Prior knowledge:
By secondary structure, the protein is α/β, with parallel strands linked by helices. The chain has helices at 7-11, 35-50, 68-75, 87-98, 117-124, 146-161, 178-183, 198-208, 229-251, 263-283, 289-302, 304-354; strands at 25-31, 56-61, 78-81, 103-107, 111-113, 130-137, 165-166, 173-177, 212-223.
Amino acid sequence: MYTAMNQSDAMGASPGQLPGQALSISVIMPVYNGAEFIVKSLPPLLEMEQRGEVLEVIVVDDGSTDRSMQIARELGAVVLSSGGRRGPGGARNQAAEVARGEFLWFVDADVVVHSNTAECLAKGFVNEQIVAVFGSYDSNPPAQNFFSRYKNLVHHYYHQRASDEAQTFWSGCGAVRRDIFISAGGFDVERYQYPSIEDIELGHRLIEAGGRVRLSRDVQCTHLKVWRFGNLIHTEIFRRALPWSRLILGSGAGIPNDLNVGMSEQVRAGVAAILLLSILGFFAGALSALVLVLVVILMLYINREIAQFFYRKGGLVFACGALLYHQVYYLYSATAFAWVFIEQNLLGRLFRQAS
């Protein structure tokens, strides 16, 4: 079991090594038809294994029909087969059962970790109360189309500004103590059979059980996924907004004031709705141009920080497009939350009365 050390002991640990325990990290990567990704994402992890920074790199092939399994073996990873499509949560759970490390480091197949990520993760586990540590995408995605840049930068922006004391967990690049993970039952594979919010739900359970989850800004990785309008909208609504809203409303714990669901974000979503109504009202002749201009100024003011971030990373044209699309994001996210509220309260009550 990991034993907390004083500062002088921790400083004496070698880079990438968890204080008090050498070679204690098992990397777990679920893969489904990720051949094009793992040729880039596996080598940095295997180099960490060679340097002694991690104990092993386990790839779980989740029913791929491409050469993912063969490539992973050729590169030198330990390869398991899920025996069919179990989803990323099920694949991670399977690897956790055989992993030898005291810490499980989950890395997505389309994620390339930075060379110091193992060391930064290790520093996050400063005491036994911290049961999980995660990071964020960096701000330099290789895919340069609009939606890939927008999605990646939004993730980076919110994670880099969030509280160190996290209210969630992220399995794209995050580690958890193995004994805690096993005792918690791992990822919920009954509810989340596809890539969704299984990591967020796990984080909720870890925190409810008394553990602390830490967000480390130094833990960063490069995201290789190419986002386009279709897969972005589908993922954002059906794999994120709707299940996350169900988790929040079903838990009864209220909306966490952090990341992209905090109180300030709720206000911005409200302003996005007002902006839409103002535009419709203006074209319908019900509102004057002055009112519309004032609402636009309000929207720009309360979104000034993320707008400046978009501008620094992509210039004026990108910033304008990204800020505009961000208002659309607020609208469909708020609509999803409203639908789940109706679903769980009004419709649920009607169904109960009918039965």
